[in-house]
From TrEMBL:
Pfam families: NAD_binding_8. Signal peptide: none annotated. Its cofactor is FAD; [4Fe-4S] cluster. This is Electron transfer flavoprotein-ubiquinone oxidoreductase. It catalyses: a ubiquinone + reduced [electron-transfer flavoprotein] = a ubiquinol + oxidized [electron-transfer flavoprotein] + H(+). Its EC number is 1.5.5.1.
Length: 175
């Protein structure tokens, strides 16, 4: 049986977002805030939200204040504020401190921003999205776009077939 012969279940949504990273989840939250009656779905290729995200970051909370004004009361994983920072010019053998760099380049200053685990932050955003009615499907990678009349109208999710085949003594995953 080829993939074109496989019978597929079809699910319809007003909005489909591919990727449960901070941008995708924020978009889903904002859409539900603006149009609560809209059906919004987020597909995530990872086995769980946050599984395929880079581990850490520094976040400026201004956008989060606008998206979720009560995030501080919602047990958000933003707890460690940047209280000091240092800039260095690095060579192969030495590091030279640049003590006034943040005054020269204020856009690079992170004072007052938050050091976070992006995986934890994405899980927090997913909880907020689901509380608003967003459907999140981890473990589903968008594999093929569906184009009708020169318009993207959906996606076909990847089909993973797990097979316990032995190839040079190792179990392999076949697609």
């Amino acid at each position: 049986m080829t993939t074109s012969e496989i019978e597929r279940e079809e699910m319809s949504f007003d909005v489909l977002i591919v990727g449960a990273g901070p941008a995708g989840l924020s978009a889903a939250i904002r859409l539900k805030q603006l149009k609560p009656e809209a059906s919004v779905c987020v597909l995530e290729k990872g086995s769980e939200v946050g599984a395929h995200i880079v581990s850490g970051a520094v976040i400026e909370s201004r956008s989060l204040d606008e998206l979720l004004p009560d995030w501080r009361d919602l047990d958000a994983p933003l707890q460690t504020q940047v209280s000091s920072e240092k800039f260095f010019f690095l060579t192969e053998e030495r590091a030279f401190a640049l003590p006034f760099f943040e005054r020269l380049m204020p856009a690079l200053s992170n004072h007052g921003n938050y050091v976070v685990s992006l995986g934890s932050f994405c899980r927090f955003l997913a909880e907020q999205a689901e509380a608003l009615g967003v459907e999140i499907y981890p473990g589903f990678a968008a594999a093929t776009p569906l184009i009708e009349d020169d318009r993207l109208c959906g996606v076909i999710v990847g089909i993973w077939v797990l097979a316990a085949t032995v190839s040079q003594g190792r179990n392999t995953r076949q697609v």
